[in-house]
Every structure is written in structure tokens, then in C-alpha cells.
Amino acid sequence: MSQQRNRIDPASREPLEGLLAAIPGGFNSISDIEQRRTVVGQLLVEPELDKNVTMEERLIPGPAGEQKIRIYHAKKSKKPAPALVYIHGGGMILGSIAGEAAISQMFCAQTGATVISVDYRKAPEFPYPCGPDDCYSAAKWVFDNASELGIDVKNIGIYGGSAGGGLALAVVLMARDRKTLNFKYMLPIYPMIDDRNETSSTHEVTEIGIWDRSANIEAWNWYLGGKPADSYAAPARATDLSGLPPAFIDVGELDAFRVEDAEFALRLLKSGVACEFRIYPGAYHGSEIFAPEADLSKRIVAGRVDALKRFIAL
Question: What is the pTM of this model?
């Protein structure tokens, strides 16, 4: 076992070791992207629908034709309800709205917010700017159809983890620059935001087995398709962070994104944007997903639910 994995919270490390025993080298060792997607999809099993939530799938107009979304309504939510645009993770190359259904409906049930989970095109088949364009288009559809959806257009936030966090930041930057969507708040969770891979944590986290340096470099290469990154592709490159909505960001101590996320949170504060930032010792990238029963994971998830409730109530 590597020294890095010895630093992981013990309860969070056990399922990771089981995964690495089954797939030596982790997901990134599967070179074929379709096979990798299949394996990830088999691990992220969609749960039964929460009894306090209803769900419907829709196809809405997107930049490249029809685009799929899921809408989760809390049965006892007030009307008009607060809303959360939810962007799934997966390094810009993996993931699905079905794979993060558990989190989407949990947020809906616990906060009363209508959660709109967004599908988007992924690299390498569809490199940048396909992902941000899809996510922005879906978010605009939510704002434009707020009345029909029964949601409060003045109480809409945006959430995303990992690649979803980077895409959420791309959307709010685009909205600010285009003077369009007025998000009340944002939760970019351990966001993937810097293509340069130059921080100390990207050099440090190399042997965890879950989204470490080599996986990140590969994904960025696929996502950018050989083109240089701008501030929508890699929000860490944005020179102006003023005018963005209040933020909540968290990241694990053993996450390759630790430093880029901490630096981004500090830059938000320096730009006059309210930002709560948390770092969790012993946590690796996505550890709350792989070890949901660990006390550390429960604290991580509870922190996000609490932040959502506070943002909604503002």
C-alpha cells in the first residue's frame, strides 16, 4: 500500500482498496473509454426513487439537438419552489444523470428544491466547448421555463462535483459575461478547473487510484482536443472572478484538485464574492461516493446539504 493511501481515513480506504483489488490501477487502467464508462456505470447503481420525490425525464432543445434532463420535485415543497441546476461529474469523459440520481433526489428530498439534473456531451467524442454549451443551454431553459416548472426564478442555484463543478463555474462565468442567468448561489464541489496540472497537489496525488495526476492529464487532453484552454474550459484561468454568485466549495486533503480549488476559493474572496471553503483531512476525490457509510463521508454530505439550505433561505 502506498504512503498516500495510508493517509486516507480508514473507513473511507476500505472500499477503495476493494475497488483497486478488483481493478488494479483503478479506472484509468481501462484504456478503452467505452469499456471504462461501462465499468463506472455498473458501480454507480441507480437507487429506487425516494418516496418523498417525483421524477420525470424530458428532452429539451440543446445546441446539438435534443438534450436529456431529469426533473426531481419534492412532493411537499412550497410553490413556487427553489431550484437547483445539477451537473454530474466524470472528468468531462464519464458519468451520467442516472449515476448521480441518489445525490440529486437526496438534495430534493432534504431541501425541498426542485432539482434539474443535466445531461451533456462528453469528450473525447465531443470536446470543448460542447460540455459548457450544453450545460449553459439547459440552465437557460430552466430560467426561461421557471413558471411552467413551478420554481422561483429568484431562487435558483447551481451544483456540480468534479467535472460538474468545473462546468458549473463555466456556466456562471458565461452567464455573468452575457448578462443573462441570475444564479442565487453556486456549489462547485472539488471542481476540475485547471488544465495546467502545475500545483503541488497534482504532483503529490499520483498513487491514490481515484482520479490522480495521470487520469487528470489524460482527461484534459481529451477534453481540449489539442486546443488551448480559455476561462470557460478551465475556470482557474479566468482573470476576473467578480460578480459571481456566493459559493460553497469543499475538497479532500488527498485530492489532486486540493490546491487549485483552495487558490480559486481565495481568489473569489479577494474578488468580493462570498465563499465558504472546506478541506477534509483523510478524504480523497469522491471518497463520499465510494464510502458513503464512513463518518467522514456523512460529514461531507451533511455540510453540502446544510449549505444548500442556508443558500435557499437567504
Answer: 0.96
- Residue-wise pLDDT tens digits, 237-248: 999 999 999 999
3-state secondary structure of 104: helix
Nearest of 276, 262, 264 to residue 311 by alpha carbon: 276
Summarize pLDDT for 35-50 with one digit per residue, the tens.
Answer: 999 988 888 778 899 9
Contact 232, 130 (CB under 8 A): no
Specify whether the backbone of 124 is left (phi greater than 0), alpha (psi in -120 to 50) or beta. alpha
CATH 3.40.50.1820 fits 3-313, yes or no: yes
Question: What is the per-residue pLDDT across 254-311, written as a single tens digit (0 to 9) for each?
Answer: 999 999 999 999 999 999 999 999 999 999 999 999 999 999 999 999 999 999 999 9
d(CA 186, CA 245): 6
Q: In what order do the strands lie in the sheet with 151-161?
A: 53-62, 65-74, 114-118, 81-87, 151-161, 185-189, 247-254, 275-284
Domain extents in the chain:
3-313
Cα–Cα distances (Å) from 187 to 7, 168, 226, 303, 309, in that order, read: 27, 8, 29, 11, 12
Question: Residue 195: exposed, middle, or buried by beta-carbon count in 10 A (0-12, 13-18, 19+)?
Answer: buried
